[in-house]
Write a structure and sequence with these properties.
mainly beta; 3-stranded antiparallel sheet; 3 helices; 42% strand
């Protein structure tokens, strides 16, 4: 009887362990992205002006900045080594010119530093979706710490953080919609191997009150040299690493043919 009881206890503990592992797996966030560099047929040896469209998405089973695995803390976007970022192609904007501003105010202060735009969503801890508009600005170099002197990209997001969350992203130069601003700071670092640069956006939960779900943006244009591409070999490579607020991470790599 003692052996049978001990065996039953062992099986019971094992079952609890399986349930616990399953719960952890179920609670894990899921992130992915799509991207497209245009044009896809630049010269082989010289750079051509381009634009990069990306769509980064994350879903959570238990969203919340205070819930482990319920928010993104850091996003690292790796760019192909045959793509070039020219931070001297636009004016540079500082945090104090963008923090707490409307789209109109941000454009008044930093219109000549604008290098991209798009849309974003966040979740009010699963209660409702928060919608927002994104403006990407060429930033002034970092001034302190290990990143001092490195170029930056300011991710300005104006949101309507109330339900219903309705906001138009049209005409940012005159647009005063939204009731909150999220300002994220991306640092551009050198990368190795298949990649030339990595845009590192850290400390996200310190800037965003709610977990970010999707950023859909386009950076650059045919009339700007901010981002350029060449095609000596195909395909191009890009990857994104998300680090969540429980210190777990996920990396997704993708390619795009070029000719």
């Amino acid at each position: 009887m003692g052996i049978k009881r001990r065996s039953a206890a062992i099986f019971a503990l094992a079952a609890v362990g399986v349930v616990a592992v399953a719960a952890v797996a179920i609670a894990a966030p899921t992130s992915t992205f799509t991207s497209k560099m245009t044009p896809s047929n630049p010269p082989k040896t010289t750079y051509k002006n381009g634009s990069l469209a990306t769509d980064l998405k994350t879903t959570y089973t238990n969203p919340g900045n205070s819930n482990p695995g319920g928010a993104i803390q850091r996003t690292q976007i790796y760019l192909d080594k045959n793509w070039k970022i020219n931070t001297g192609a636009a004016s540079k904007c500082a945090d104090n010119q963008l923090a707490g501003k409307t789209m109109k105010d941000a454009m008044t202060a930093c219109k000549n530093a604008l290098i991209g735009s798009g849309t974003a969503t966040a979740t009010a801890n699963g209660v409702f979706q928060i919608n927002g508009c994104v403006l990407l600005f060429n930033g002034k170099p970092a001034t302190s710490g290990p990143d001092a002197g490195l170029p930056t990209l300011k991710v300005f997001t104006r949101v309507q953080a109330s339900n219903p969350s309705t906001i138009s992203c049209a005409n940012p130069t005159t647009n005063t919609q939204g009731n909150a601003t999220i300002l994220l700071n991306g640092v551009l670092r050198n990368a190795t191997g298949l990649y030339g640069k990595v845009l590192d956006v850290n400390n996200i939960t310190q800037s965003a009150s709610f977990p970010l779900e999707e950023f859909k943006t386009t950076i650059g244009k045919s009339t700007s040299t901010y981002i350029q591409a060449k095609c000596p070999t195909t395909p191009w490579h890009m990857k994104v690493t998300w680090t969540y607020n429980d210190n777990t991470s996920k990396t997704v790599s993708k390619t795009q043919p070029c000719t």
